[in-house]
Amino acid sequence: MFTPVLTAQSLTKTYGSTVALAGVSLQIGVAEAVAVMGASGSGKTTLLHCLAGIITPDNGTVTLHAPQGPQQVHQLPPEGRARLRRDHYGFVFQQGLLLPELTAVENVALPLLLGGTERRAAEAEAARWLHHLGLAGMEDRRPGQLSGGQAQRVAVARAQVTGPAVVFADEPTGALDSRTSAQVMQALLDTTVGAGRSLVVVTHDEQVAAGCHRVVRLRDGLVVQEHAGGARPAEVVA
Ligand SMILES: Nc1ncnc2c1ncn2[C@@H]1O[C@H](COP(=O)(O)OP(=O)(O)OP(=O)(O)O)[C@@H](O)[C@H]1O
């Protein structure tokens, strides 16, 4: 049975005369991995940012089906969207966006500290995630002392540490070779859909999309194709 975690309806967004989204409707299911693909400029990042409450659409609605009731993401003021992102979402970007002056464990602990968790507990939980992602022993390294794949796994750990309902990833493997890319994508899938969470991943990489349940293709700000990816729910849902 398909249970939606996120519902977007008729999203539009323009920047001056550029139409980034021309009316996109999309549902993301609980424990579903959805790849968003399309040519450069087709609106992928704009869609991800609308779903994630980073920006608001000009028109249309985004509803997060949170345990405490539906949240109208598009109507929230900036501070409400910031809270929603902190409480319900995780993020992984192409370059990881780790803070260079913090160690791996401090980077991963950061979302918990911002949410009010005490430092010792936050760092213990962060270390647990690093261990889970095969990074035991790297806790005290700074991002500059990690390989690209290791840094991305730290970013995956940071996205998961608060137990978000949905993880958004924008080209999470874009800077990696294909073998490392496959490992990072597997880590993302294991820690999201493998734990009952949802994943929305913007990618140009067909291999990454093949690991998802569903692939949505955009052109000129519209969904022009939607088809199953390579993953079957029964294989990845714990
Ligand atoms: N902040 C902005 N200001 C002006 N135009 C923007 C802005 N953000 C996006 N755009 C424009 O909106 C359109 C869609 O951009 P978007 O980044 O969503 O595309 P994309 O599919 O993610 O592209 P890419 O694959 O190159 O990252 C593009 O024409 C882009 O130039």
TrEMBL record:
Entries under Pfam families matching the protein: ABC_tran (PF00005)
UniProt cross-references to PROSITE patterns, sorted A to Z: ABC_TRANSPORTER_2
Keywords for this protein: ATP-binding, Nucleotide-binding, Transport
GO CC terms in record: plasma membrane
InterPro entries xref list: AAA+_ATPase (IPR003593), ABC_transporter-like_ATP-bd (IPR003439), ABC_transpr_LolD-like (IPR015854), MacB-like_ATP-bd (IPR017911), P-loop_NTPase (IPR027417)
Gene Ontology MF annotations: ATP binding; ATP hydrolysis activity; transmembrane transporter activity
Domain ABC transporter: 6-238
Gene3D superfamilies: P-loop containing nucleotide triphosphate hydrolases (3.40.50.300)
PANTHER family hit by this protein: ABC TRANSPORTER RELATED, IMPORT ATP-BINDING PROTEIN
Name of this chain's protein: Putative ABC transport system ATP-binding protein
Source organism (scientific name): Ornithinicoccus hortensis
